[in-house]
Specification:
Helix content: 25-40%
Oligomer: single chain
Radius of gyration: 19 Å
Strand content: 15-25%
Distance between the termini: 46 Å
Length: 311
């Protein structure tokens, strides 16, 4: 099947989201020389709202308007960060993931104007983040630090840091790389120090199920390892049925041998309880691995822990 002459790409209008689209455009051009793309920017309710995401229905606040434009036929392709796509419910009817791009860095970065590392920060240092995952892990590992709520895209958060609204930030390495601001990083945290969110570093390409031409054109951008990792992680989150106020973290890793592993954690918001699970599936079905790890955590009491958190 030949590639379409034009692919309209709907995306959030933030600098980071547009940088993600630029990557897709470049990879499409390399795969299908001469193909034309057009960006259809939208501002989502999650971008407009600076309060608690739970009041907007959680992470879906970042995808609802994008999904609507795709379903309405105003665009042919949507670019999503997998971590922003809710896994506790199916994709909107009539849509599908056509490809998962090769995974970027999944780690978190500390941004401190003085270049201090996390272990060097004095007590009372204000860390700007609204991530319950980061807050819980910092409470467990560095209880002397203070987390202050901070929303907005990475550029906006850096502006707030410069304005003195926080003393340091925690941001995704992949996001800073996409907006070419790796220069602000004072420390890249290991996954042991700060376990990443489900779906970190993976871009997903979403199409209408009946649009075989676009699906065929973009499917060649897919990375098999990222597909297996995303499938395991999203199934894990689906079975666990966590909400946006649930401090849940984890990541799958596909080895060159084909072996797949999934490490995951569930925390109380204060970090005082941490449930851990880590399993290997070999070259077996990723969805089965995700289910198995979720069940392991449910057996440890994850359901009760999650249900005790208001949302």
């Amino acid at each position: 099947m030949s590639a379409p002459e034009l692919i309209r790409i709907v995306s959030r209008s933030s600098p980071m989201a547009l940088a993600q689209v630029a990557r897709v455009q470049a990879e499409l051009e390399a795969l299908h020389p001469g193909i034309r793309t057009e960006v259809v920017p939208v501002t989502t309710s999650g971008d407009r709202w600076m309060g608690d995401l739970a009041r907007l229905g959680g992470k879906g606040a970042f995808t609802k308007e994008v999904d609507a434009a795709l379903i309405a036929g105003e665009a042919d392709l949507a670019v999503h960060c997998v971590k922003d796509v809710p896994a506790d419910r199916p994709l909107p009817a009539g849509t599908t993931f056509a490809a998962f791009l090769s995974r970027d860095d999944i780690r978190d970065a500390l941004v401190h104007p003085g270049g201090l590392r996390l272990d060097e920060l004095p007590g009372g240092t204000r860390i700007g983040t609204s991530s319950v995952r980061r807050v819980a892990q910092l409470a467990a590992s560095h209880p002397q630090l203070e987390c202050v709520p901070m929303r907005g895209n990475a550029n906006r958060r850096l502006e707030k840091l410069a304005a003195g609204e926080a003393d340091a930030l925690l941001l995704a390495v992949s996001g800073l790389e996409r907006i070419e601001r790796m220069d602000v990083i004072s420390e890249v945290l290991s996954v042991e120090a700060m376990c990443p969110p489900i779906g970190a570093g993976i871009l997903a390409l979403q199409c209408r199920e009946d649009d075989a031409t676009t699906i065929d054109a973009v499917s060649g951008l897919g990375d098999p390892a990222a597909h297996r990792e995303a499938t395991a992680e999203r199934m894990f989150l689906h079975v666990l049925q966590g909400h946006c106020n649930s401090p849940i973290a984890g990541f799958a890793r596909s080895e060159r041998s084909g072996d797949l592993s999934l490490r995951a954690k569930v925390f109380t918001p204060d970090g005082k309880r941490v449930l851990n699970a880590h399993e290997w599936a070999g070259p077996l079905d990723p969805a089965t691995l995700g289910t198995s790890v979720a069940v392991a955590l449910l057996r440890q009491g994850a359901r009760e822990l999650i249900d005790e958190i208001s949302h």
